Amino acid sequence: MESNSKAGKHGLEGDVDLQFLLEGGELMKIKSSWKNNRFYKLQDDCETIWHESHRIFKRKQTFSIDEIDSVRKGRQSEGLQKHTEAHVEDRCFSIIFKGRRRTLDLVAASVEEARQWVNGLEKLTSNRRKLNRQQTSEHWIFNCMRKADKNKDNMMNLKELKHFLRQINIEVDETYAKMLFAKCDTSNSGTLEGAEIKQFYDLLTHREEIDVIYRKYASTGGQMSVKDLLNFLLNEQRESATLEDAVRLIEKYELDDSAKQINHMTKDGFLMYLQQEEGSIFNPAHKEVFQDMSQPINHYFISSSHNTYLMEDQLKGPSSTEAYIK
After folding, report:
1. CA nearest 66: which of 127, 134, 133?
2. Does residue 219 lie within any of the structural domains?
3. What is the pLDDT of residues 66-123, one digit of tens each?
4. Same domain, 108 and 10
5. Domain boundary pick from 64, 96, 129
6. Quick one: which of 93, 122, 294, 323 has the most CB atoms within 10 Å?
7. What CA–CA distance (Å, rounded) separates 8 from 193?
């Protein structure tokens, strides 16, 4: 079955929580002014949640697993604390989204169903983060394209492309965008599709500085040997690294099996490493919280702008402590 192959890609084939999500079920959606039952279901792609809607023009709606930041058990959100009773604590959970999308507050029919929803969603989001760089990039691009593709023909004209650029937060000169569009439209169809969209994105986001640093240290046949990588770790990253550390990084992040077999790191593997926490310039010694975090929130000084508590626009949008939490 298609859903089984997709589950296998996530490393979750046969998982009972994933099967539960694929079958779907009713959840009570909690809003400030109403509470209504809605049917939610993981689609067969194992990457999209479908749910029914009572809006006239949006009877069926979806959101991607990639849009989920976290899943909270219990009545942790402001909405659930205000609009549900304490006795349903173990049946409640909240889906927190990335960006400014509002938190989805839900109540399951039973404690066991709430547990399965939370476990299943956490497994999916966790596995999504583990995808290699190419898969993550392509999947994210696909999701942005899906939102920008207004007529749902899986192709993008120049007008839709501009919306796509706004989705991925890229400001670009219109003349330059048109030039790249023409360059990538190898079929001369007036639209971009499939690999052409990926090529457009790659050209737009090319990182010359990464090429420079890789060429500087890749002194072994155009690739980084384990010794080249160690040289980079010692001289650029200023880490107290060993040859064993460099071998471990190649084993963990290199995408090309033939390069991995000879302890080499290609540029794709190098990019994969740089995009992860281990490649961050942030000193991990500073990561631990040493202050007392057990006091009520009003005992602390919150350093923020006056807009931090706003959920939408600053003129008429709602405000909430959820914005601080995010």
Report:
1. 127
2. yes
3. 889 899 999 999 999 999 999 999 999 999 998 778 899 999 999 999 999 999 999 9
4. yes
5. 129
6. 93
7. 27
How many C-beta atoms lie closer than 10 Å to residue 305's C-beta? 7
Kindly report the CATH number assigned to the domain that includes residue 152: 1.10.238.10
**Is residue 280 assigned to a domain?**
yes
Q: How many domains does the chain have?
A: 3
The HSE-up count of residue 315 (CA atoms within 13 Å, CB side) is 0
Residue type, 180: L
Cα–Cα distance measured from residue 75 to residue 253, given in angstroms and rounded to the nearest whole number: 38
How far, in Å, CA of 286 to CA of 279, rounded? Answer: 15
Q: What is the pLDDT of residues 98-108, one digit of tens each?
A: 877 889 999 99
Helices 158-167/195-204 angle, 10° precision: 60
Closest Cα to residue 281, out of 242, 239, 243?
239
> In the block, which residue shows the tokens 């404690």?
111
Residue 17 near residue 11 (C-beta atoms within 8 A): no
Domain span at residue 193 reads: 134-204
Residue showing tokens 């779907």: 24
Radius of gyration of the chain (CA): 23
| Burial class of residue 150 (count of CB atoms within 10 Å of its CB; 0-12, 13-18, 19+) | exposed
120 & 143 share domain = no
Cβ 198 vs Cβ 141: under 8 Å: yes
CB 229 within 8 A of CB 217: yes
